[in-house]
Design goal:
By secondary structure, the chain is an alpha/beta fold. It folds into four domains: about 200 residues, Rossmann fold (3-Layer(aba) Sandwich), CATH 3.40.50.1220; about 70 residues, no CATH class; about 220 residues, no CATH class; about 100 residues, no CATH class. Helix content is about 55%, strand content about 5%. It contains 27 helices and nine strands. Strand 3, helix 9 and strand 4 form a beta-alpha-beta unit. It starts with 5 loop residues before the first helix and ends in a 6-residue tail after the last helix.
Length: about 600
């Protein structure tokens, strides 16, 4: 099946786990700035030494240096030969790390797009810890330009006396030192180990934070590889971005840490894309609770007087537009895998993140419709219905692909709103509103097996087998580990989400359960009635499915089916939903629907969803 882009997974992780992920940056991050690596600087310094002594160091400068001086080259002994004083050394090094006027005009040795995107992530609080092998100060410059003054740890002494990471807005750990330090690490021997203080700090970071790796090959930094490998915990994920699939030691490291690899992006592309996605997710995320409370208070005021009917309409539909706009930005349609194992492997974290995002995006609208369902007058019922219908239409899967078995998780928001408003109207005895929810609307959709059109109500659109069962599969996996196709996992999630916004109307747990079960039984009856009205008379006895639900469970000493049937028998045509016009007001149609559901319950029991 088409996989959800790992960049999407990473963006969700960073956006909704503020400060949880640390960066591990290698020389590839500064490559676009024309900054040499540490070893490239060493080789260039050797050439300068050879030139000063009128020697030709040939194609292998390091070999020439060892043969001439009897030891491997390193940063410190090269600087001693080329510059006698700290001021001389600083002047020499500036040419490698600080731009000339011409280089500045050309954009060289200045913060790159990657540095700037990282700085924004830090300024927004998403990243707080950065580990880097780079000697340059481009990252610090970008951070300071964004208003962040980082705490820089570039030596064992600094690591020993460092302020705890949790108390700082940003910490940059330069494991190989800073270019102004004469003892920064670059040779093979130097890269084989860290001082105990630096190891202790790295152990803490790799234990407590998720890790995003970029621009690091892992080839030469043995001590850093060891630090990543010896971390026993896997609290958060590891993401690895590189131009190509990791090979060799990098691949081994990814396999050990079960890293999510993001190939084919250089550092600029990677961090710019990540920054854009995180910003978008935050902008469409949850609103402040006080804003939602104010919206609900305004709704109540507008509902109370008919003179506010236009303002009431605009308040609700503006929120619908806002929520749908946010929901439309989430890419959720992919082919449903045929096997349970594929679903578990491919859609675990993604489904949880998408459902959580929808829950936050539609929270305000849900609370408005719950209050409308409970308090609203008969004349206002069409507004609540239209709000749900609009969400269902605008987030429906592409009708141009009727043969594509897709994960229609885009149907979840409308289903959530339907349950919230339905339970509230049932609790508030607003039967006209409930009857409209159960029978209203007009959807035209292609049948999967025919070219002609099939008329559907909102309820049938939401609860038809393909649409409903696939949406439930997503919710079920989100809530159950052992049986992701159980219908009960979805109910568990809906219960959790709905209890808080409904607590002002239904405070008792048992009462909430009764209303929830009753709504689902009414859904089944209304669906059965639609099936009976649509069916070919010759095939009327072969209808095999109605939406399953918690009404199948007789736990908590509540048998909703029996209680409802007794109520219908006692009240007959005076049963509230019949009086509100459901089932065409016909007792016979109601009884036929009850009979059909009874038959399917006896035959299939809790496996109605199959």
């Amino acid at each position: 099946m088409p996989q959800i882009d790992p960049m999407t997974t990473l963006a969700f992780s960073v956006a909704y786990n503020k400060g949880v992920y640390a960066l591990l940056l290698g020389s590839g991050v500064s490559r676009a700035a024309a900054i040499m690596t540490g070893w490239e600087i060493v080789l260039d310094l050797i050439k300068k030494v050879a030139a000063a002594e009128n020697q030709d160091c040939g194609p292998e400068p390091a070999d020439w240096f060892k043969q001439r001086y009897g030891k491997d080259p390193d940063y410190s002994n090269l600087l001693e030969k080329l510059a006698n004083t700290p001021a001389d050394r600083r002047q020499l090094l500036q040419s490698y790390f600080e731009p000339s006027e011409q280089e500045r005009e050309e954009g060289k040795k200045t913060p790159t797009a990657a540095h700037k995107a990282i700085a924004k992530l830090v300024a927004d609080g998403h990243i707080r810890v950065i580990v880097t092998t780079n000697f340059d100060r481009l990252l610090e410059q970008a951070l300071e330009a964004s208003g962040v003054v980082p705490n820089v740890i570039a030596s064992p002494a600094a690591a020993r006396g460092a302020t705890p990471l949790v108390h700082l807005p940003c910490t940059v750990v330069k494991v190989h030192g800073d270019y102004l330090d004469t003892d920064f690490k670059n040779t093979k021997v130097e890269l084989e180990s860290f001082d105990p203080e630096m190891n202790r700090l790295l152990d803490q970071i790799f234990d407590e934070y998720g890790l995003i790796v970029c621009g690091w090959s892992a080839q030469w930094d043995e001590a850093l590889r060891d630090a990543v490998n010896r971390c026993k915990t896997r609290r958060f994920s590891m993401f690895w971005s590189a131009l190509h699939e990791p090979t060799g030691l990098a691949r081994d490291l990814c396999n050990r840490r079960n890293a999510v690899v993001i190939p084919e992006k250089n550092a600029d592309e990677f961090f710019e894309k990540l920054g854009e996605m995180v910003t978008s997710l935050v902008e469409i995320g949850a609103r402040h609770p006080l804003e939602t409370s104010a919206a609900v208070a305004t709704l109540k005021r507008f509902m109370a007087e008919d003179r506010h009917r236009i303002r009431l309409h605009d308040l609700v539909m503006d929120e619908v537009k806002s929520a749908v706009s946010a929901g439309s930005t989430v890419s959720t349609v992919s082919t449903l895998p045929a096997h349970r194992g594929d679903l578990i492997a491919s859609f675990a974290k993604e489904s949880k993140q998408i459902v959580s995002l929808y829950d936050s995006q539609f929270d305000c609208l849900l609370r408005l419709l719950i209050n409308g369902g409970y308090w609203g007058r008969r004349s206002q019922k069409k507004l609540w219905f239209r709000a749900i219908e609009t969400v269902a239409r605008d987030l429906a899967p592409d009708p141009g692909k009727p043969n594509d078995k897709s994960c229609v998780i885009g149907g979840y928001p409308a289903m959530l709103l339907f349950y919230g408003c339905g339970i509230a109207s049932l609790a508030g005895e607003r039967y006209a509103t409930l009857a409209l929810l159960l029978s209203g609307g007009h959807f035209k959709e292609n049948k999967l097996d025919k070219l002609d059109k099939l008329d559907k109500s909102l309820l049938v659109h939401l609860f038809c087998l393909d649409f409903y069962s696939n949406t439930l599969k997503i919710l079920d996996y989100y809530n159950t580990d052992d049986n992701p196709f159980s219908i009960w996992g979805a109910r568990h999630h809906l219960n959790l989400i709905l209890k808080d916004p409904l607590k002002h109307f239904i405070s008792d747990e048992a009462e909430f359960t009764r209303h929830f079960k009753k709504l689902e039984y009414f859904i089944a009856l209304a669906f059965a009635d639609w099936e009976l009205q649509q069916a070919d008379p010759k095939k009327r006895g072969v209808i095999s499915w109605v939406p399953p639900g918690s009404y199948l469970d007789s736990g908590n000493n509540v048998n909703i089916v029996s209680a409802t049937k007794e109520e219908i028998e006692r009240l007959g045509a005076r049963w509230p939903l019949l009086r509100a016009g459901l089932f065409g007001g016909s007792v016979d149609r109601l009884q036929a629907a009850v009979s059909l559901v009874d038959t399917l319950m006896r035959v299939k029991g809790p496996f109605l969803s199959r």
